[in-house]
Structures are given as structure tokens and as C-alpha cells.
Amino acid sequence: MTTDLFSLLGRTALITGGSRGIGKMIAKGFIDQGAKVYISSRKPGACDATAAELGDMCVSLPQDVSTVDGCKALAAAYATHESKLDILVNNAGAAWGAAFDEFPENGWDKVLDLNLKSPFFLTQALAPALRASATFDKPAKVINVASIDGIRPNPQETYSYQASKSGLIHLTRRMAARLIQDNIVVTCIAPGAFASEMNRDARDHGEEIAKRIPFHRIGTDEDMQGVAIYLASRAGDYAVGVTIAVDGGVAFASVGGV
After folding, report:
1. Contact criterion met (CB below 8 Å) for 162 and 169
2. How many other CB atoms sit within 10 Å of the CB of residue 208?
3. Given a cut of 90, is residue 42 above it in pLDDT?
4. Which of 78, 161, 230, 238 is catalytic?
5. Residue 198: is its pLDDT beyond 70?
6. Which end of the chain is less packed: N or C, by CB atoms within 10 Å?
7. Predicted local distance difference test score (pLDDT) of residue 1
8. Nearest-10 Cα torsion for 172, 176, 177, 180
9. pLDDT computed for residue 254 by the predictor
10. Which residues pair with 145 in a beta bridge?
């Protein structure tokens, strides 16, 4: 029935970077649609506080997933609660800005490890739980959170961030090609300006940023929740390997850009 297209009733989800920002937005949206949501964050206090705020359908699983061992540890922690996983959202991320001539190796490695390496190895670690859930009629979902900075260059000198997000968009397509064989649909969201700790310009100077966005505003919680729910639910089952820009038109409907 069309009324069930966007329902997540009875489904379980795991969201990295789920204690704040875009991850928290998605977590609340999933819960509102009936899902049980596990959120992860490298800061236990923040993770616990957000889970308490979002209610009984949200469970805190603090873990740093910037290493392969960390990814395996999160998968093991999840397995103590659930034997199956319906939806994985690879949202945890980092950024680093520095002038080209001064950009450091540790700023490169930190960002690439968390933004590009971790989504692959966390999905790999959770593949048994995803496969246990997935069927032809009800596929499991992996949603990677990239950025419009992976679609077009940003004026800021965030070299490793932009490279990592572009890589994640293409990795999404390659993972999708393999995992659809297991009834696991892999997709990607490329957010634009949303108020968060990661995007302090949008958080602190939203009105100024809005002037450079075709839609003339920054993104809201509902904007992010809408596309995430679509991809996670029955409504998005046939959207395989796609990346959806959620940016008010910056990447694909702008002649200037932000």
C-alpha cells in the first residue's frame, strides 16, 4: 500500500556520528517512522545524552570508528543487541582546512580514514547482519553521507575533505554493484548547507549563506529526514547506487555556487 511506502516500522538502524548534526536529524526521522535506532559517536557522554533525548527507541553505542578495529568493535557491540541490521547510515565524518602549501599529512590521513576508509570497513564488518536481514522483497540498506563538496569544488581549502567525499560517492556506486547481489541497496546523500558543528558557517551565518543558495535558505531537519527516510524505506528500494544532493540547488541548479 502506498501509505506504507515510507514506514520504517519494525526496522533497526545504526547511524554513525548520530549524536549531533545530520546524524541526529536522521536518527529522529527514522524513529518518527517507527524504527529502532542505534547511534554511535566517539564521545560516550554526547552519545548517551542524545539517546536519552530521542527516547526509548534510541540506543547509545559509543565507538570511535576511525580505525578498522573500531569498526569491528562497533559491529561486535551491535551484535550483542541484534542479530540483524536493516539500515546502516555511514555518517561519521571529519574535516580539515589549511592552505595548500601548508596542508599536513595528519590532516589528510585523519579525514580520509574516517570519511572514506571507515564507511567501507564498517559496512564490511556489518555485512553478516545486513545479509541476515536482506531479502529480495525487503532489501537491507546502506546509506553513505557524503557532501556536495564531492560533486563540485568548494572555495575553502579543505583538500582531504573534498577528495574523501568525492571518493565516497564513487565508492557508493562500486559497493552498490556488489552488494545488490545480496539484496543490499547502497546509496548516498550529498548534503549542502545544514547547521551543524561540522558546518559552522551554516550554523552561525545561515542568513548570509542562504543568499548564495538558489533556494535562498539553508537546509532544515525535515529536508535531511525526508531524503534519508525515502532511501531507507520501501519507497527507495529501486534507487540503487544513486547519490542525492540535498542542497537547495547549489550543485545542480546554480550558475555561481556557494
Report:
1. no
2. 11
3. yes
4. 161
5. no
6. N
7. 46
8. 180
9. 85
10. 189
| pLDDT above 80 for 3 | no
Question: Is residue 120 scored above 50 in pLDDT?
Answer: yes
Distance CA 64, CA 205 (A): 30
Residue 209 cell numbers, joined: 549563506
Whole-prediction pTM:
0.95
> Has residue 2 got a pLDDT over 80?
no
- Pick from 241, 243, 221, 245: which is nearest to 26 by CA? 221
Enter the C-alpha cell of residue 66: 576511525
Quickly list DSSP for 28-79: HHHHHTT-EEEEE-S-HHHHHHHHHHH-TTEEE-----SSHHHHHHHHHHHH
* Inter-residue contact 226 to 191 (CB < 8 Å): no
Annotated catalytic residue 161: yes
| Length of the chain counted residue by residue | 258
Which of the four pLDDT bands, split at 50, 70 and 90, describes residue 204? low
Beta bridge partners of 40: 16
Among 25, 28, 26, 30, CA closest to 8: 30
